[in-house]
Amino acid sequence: MKLTRFAAAAVAALVASQAQAAEMTMKFGHVGAPGSLFEASVDHFAQCANDALGDKGEVQTFGSSQLGKDKELLQKLKLGQVDFALPSSVMSSVDDVFGIFEMPYIIKDRDHMRRVQDAMMDKFQGAAESNGYHIVGLAENGFRHITNNIRPVNVPADLDGIKLRTPNGTWRVKMFKEYGANPTPMAFSDVFTALQTGVIDGQENPYAQIASAKFQEVQKYLSITGHVYTPAYILTSKKAWEGWPEEVRGTLSDCAAQTQDFTYEKAAELEVELLAVIEEAGVEVNEADKDAFIEASKPIYDGFGSEVDGGAEMIEQVLGLGNAS
C-alpha cells in the first residue's frame, strides 16, 4: 500500500512538472515609464496574449528599462534573455530600411501609416529577419515635438546651438544638425536627469513620452513641430519566433494586430489630454512654422535617397501612399 501511495505521488509530481515545463514564460521589456503609451500598448498585448494562450504561455511585462535600454534589449532578444521588446527610432540603427521613418514629415497621419504598413511590410519584415529579428506587429511612439529650456522654437534657426537629446538614430542626428541644433544621442532613461542638471537643453518626443517621463517639470518650452512620426515595433528574435508552436505564433500575431488598433485610439486621446497636462505644468507652448521645417528638411531626403540602397524609391512610394485616398 505504501509503495502504491509513493508511486502515485511520484506520478503526480511528474505530471505537475511536465505541465509546468510546457508553460512558456515570455518576458516583454520596454523603456516606457508608468502611464506612457508604451506601457499601455505592452500591457494590452500581454493581456490579450495571456487570455488567449491560457496555460500554453504567459507574457510578463517589464517597463522603465528594467530589463535594459533599447540597445541592450535588442541584444538580449538575440541572446534569448528577453522575448519581446518595443523599439522605435533605434530600429534605424538595425537596418537602413527603417530610416525611412526618420524622414521629416513623411508620415501624415495614422491612416497613411496603415497604408505604408499594408504596402511595405514585407520589406520591413525582410530587413528585420535579415538581422535576426521578427516583427510581430506595429504599435506607435507617435508624432514628435521639441521641448527645451533656451527659447521657443518657431523655425529651424531657433535651434541654433541647443543641446538636444535624440535617440540613437543616424538620420535623426543628421536632421537636427541640418536644423542647426547640437544633437546628443542618449538613452531615454537618462534624459530627465540630463535635462534637470543642464547636461542637455532639450529633447524631442511625443506628448505621451514627455508627460509620462515628467519632462514638463524640467522644461520651459514646448514647440509643436510634429517633425517625425515614429512607429514602434513589437519585436522578437527570428530564432524565438520560429521555435514557438504555430498556434502560439498565430495568437501573438492576432494580439499584435488588436494592440495596434488599441494603440492608435489611445494615442489620439492622449494627444489631447497630455498637451493640457504639459501646459498646466507651466510650460510655454507654441505652434512651429512647419513649412519652414519642411523646407529645411530637403537635404535629409536627398541624403537618404543617395546613401541608402533603394532609398529614393522608398521615399517616392511612402509619399505616394500619403496622397492616396
UniProtKB/TrEMBL annotation:
Main location: periplasm
Superkingdom of the organism of origin: Bacteria
Signal peptide: 1-21
Pfam families hit by this protein: DctP
One of the GO BP terms on file: transmembrane transport
Keywords from the named record: Periplasm, Signal, Transport
GO cellular component: outer membrane-bounded periplasmic space
Family to which this protein belongs: Belongs to the bacterial solute-binding protein 7 family.
Protein name: C4-dicarboxylate binding protein
Organism for this UniProt entry: Profundibacterium mesophilum KAUST100406-0324
